[in-house]
Design brief:
The complex is a heterodimer of chains A (81) and B (409). Chain A contains three helices and four strands; from the N terminus they run βαββαβα. Chain A has a two-stranded antiparallel sheet. The longest helix of chain A has 10 residues. Chain A is globular and about 30 Å long. With 409 residues, chain B is an alpha/beta fold. Chain B has 17 helices and nine strands. In chain B, the strands form two sheets. Chain B has a five-stranded mixed β-sheet with strand order 6-5-9-7-8. Chain B has a four-stranded parallel β-sheet with strand order 3-2-1-4, sandwiched between helices. In chain B, α2 runs antiparallel to α3 and α14 runs antiparallel to α15. The two termini of chain B are 34 Å apart. The chains are: A alpha+beta (81), B alpha/beta (409).
């Protein structure tokens, strides 16, 4: 199943290790926080992506497959239902 | 399209006020039938009731998800109403409180909860709500009254769950969803107070009654907080899909020529007066503008009010209201606020607009909640709708003829 980069924005401090290890997919914004697309991580970059996830000092970065449940819950109201 | 306001006939929530006591409430609406949990979910599903807090998610799907989640569930009536431009939840808690608690008890029955929380805005009358809870007979769920902190995002679902678990009222990263792990890590239903009040009516009058008005995908009525250049600013009720003009009409109609209308609040969308004149207030009708009715805020902005000045105050407010947890929001919203202020005060240059668009791009979709996305929607739509005014400001002029402030912060 396809793997996607996911981030817990409340945990990310913008240290930038991920962008250093995975410049093919991750760049840094004006304030140092990672910018990446929602597209699946190409298979040939999966090892690099896993390494980027492993070194994240705040455990903010993850690799995840878009399970049905996750997609449903992401569409669940965030406002006030 | 059926429009309803201060008329008794056909009105769902708004109507003439009677005795506010529990017996008065029962006289007005009738006894609550002893429905099973399955019956309540079935009524919610058949009626097509969607959430009235802004996201418009079908209630029955939330009820089912909480039922299926593992653990001892809890239900929350969300009346935090952090949006300064909205007042409909406070109106409901002041005028139809028993209907909200009825809906909360029905939701508790549907998901099998013994604990319920009435989570309300600090400007709600607390003694009134406390008395009202004492007045009711012993019911399935024990209801606790909790006051929400005064913050824009206090009503966001995960912020509600955090606050009610003893933490700060700030959103958290999802998954896990609040449905799976909400208040004290228990399966939690957070539902807007208006949604619950409507559930209480549906369980009395039937799904067919609810479907008599509104649109196929969004049946029923909706409360709107109407502000700005209208004869009687306040709360009105109209069917989903009602024309913006009719909703303004219920609030006394436009008192001056309009320049723009804000739909859905500070996470909402600006429409030009011409667009608003033919627009209808449902999710499907507004999709063409990238807008939604949100929590029902409609603000009529008259000619002579500077839309950029209004935007500037609101964007600064939204930046201050960032929970400060997510980098792009914490850094990006103040940057947006600065740029919009430059436009509003006439110190912007040719680089300001492209820079604003770039920052909008950088902020949208990058946070644990929708605060950055909603703020960007407000800014982008304003840049489009007030394009002429921006051009004027870039030439050192402004069309403002009054110092009146329209949008509260």
């Amino acid at each position: 199943m396809s793997q996607h980069l996911r981030i817990d924005w409340t945990a990310c401090d913008g240290r930038g290790l991920c962008a250093e290890l995975l410049p093919e997919l991750i760049r840094r914004d004006d304030w140092g926080f990672p910018v990446f697309s929602d597209a699946p991580v190409p298979v040939d970059l999966l090892d690099h992506a896993r390494r980027a996830v492993d070194v994240c000092p705040t455990l903010a970065l993850r690799l995840a497959s878009p399970s049905h449940l996750t997609r449903t819950m992401q569409r669940t109201p965030d406002g006030a239902g | 399209m059926t429009i309803m306001a201060d008329v008794e006939a056909g009105s769902a929530l708004i109507g003439s006020d009677g005795d506010a006591s529990f017996t008065g409430h029962l006289r007005r609406y009738g006894d609550l039938l002893h429905l099973s949990g399955d019956d309540v979910v079935e009524q919610a599903a058949d009626s097509g009731l969607t959430g009235h807090g802004g996201a418009g998610f079908p209630l029955w799907r939330k009820l089912n998800a909480v039922r299926e989640a593992r653990g001892c569930p809890i239900v929350v009536a969300n009346g935090a109403e952090g949006e300064p431009a909205s007042a409909k939840d406070r109106w409901l808690l002041a005028r139809r409180p028993h209907l909200v608690v009825d809906g909360l008890q029905l939701a508790a029955r549907a998901v099998g909860a013994r604990e319920a929380i009435l989570y309300v805005n600090a400007r709600t009358s607390l003694p009134l709500l406390e008395n009202l809870l004492h007045e009711r007979p012993r019911e399935r769920a024990r209801v606790e009254l909790v006051v929400a902190p005064h913050a824009f995002i206090a009503g966001e679902e995960s912020a509600v769950a955090n606050a009610l678990s003893g933490g700060a009222a700030v959103p958290r990263s999802k998954p896990p969803s609040v449905i799976e792990r909400g208040v004290r890590n228990r399966p939690t239903l957070v539902s807007n107070v208006e949604t619950l009040a409507l559930l209480a009516l549906i369980c009395r009058r039937g799904a067919g009654w609810f479907r008599d008005v509104g649109t196929a995908d969004q049946p029923g009525t909706m409360l709107f907080t109407v502000r700005g250049a209208v004869g009687r600013p306040g709360i009105v009720e109209a069917a989903h899909g009602a024309a913006v003009n009719d909703v303004l009409g219920l609030a006394g109609g436009a008192t001056r020529a309009l320049r723009a209308v804000l739909i859905g609040g500070y996470h909402g969308t600006w429409l030009t007066a011409a667009e608003a004149a033919s627009a209808r207030l449902s999710r499907s009708d507004l999709a063409v503008f990238g807008a939604t009715p949100g929590a029902g805020v409609v603000v009529a902005l008259a000619d002579g009010i500077c839309g950029l000045a209004e935007m500037s105050r609101v964007v600064s407010y939204l930046a201050r209201e960032s929970a400060g947890q997510c980098g792009p929001c914490l850094n990006g919203l103040p940057r947006l606020a600065t740029l919009v202020r430059e436009l509003a005060t006439g110190i912007a240059d040719r680089q300001t607009l492209p820079e604003l668009q770039r920052i909008c791009e950088l902020v949208a979709g990058r946070g644990a909640c929708h605060h950055p996305d909603g703020s960007v929607r407000f800014v982008r739509s304003g840049l489009r709708v007030f394009a002429e005014e921006i051009a004027r400001h870039l030439q050192g002029r402004c069309s403002r003829t009054t110092d009146q402030i329209v949008l509260p912060t």
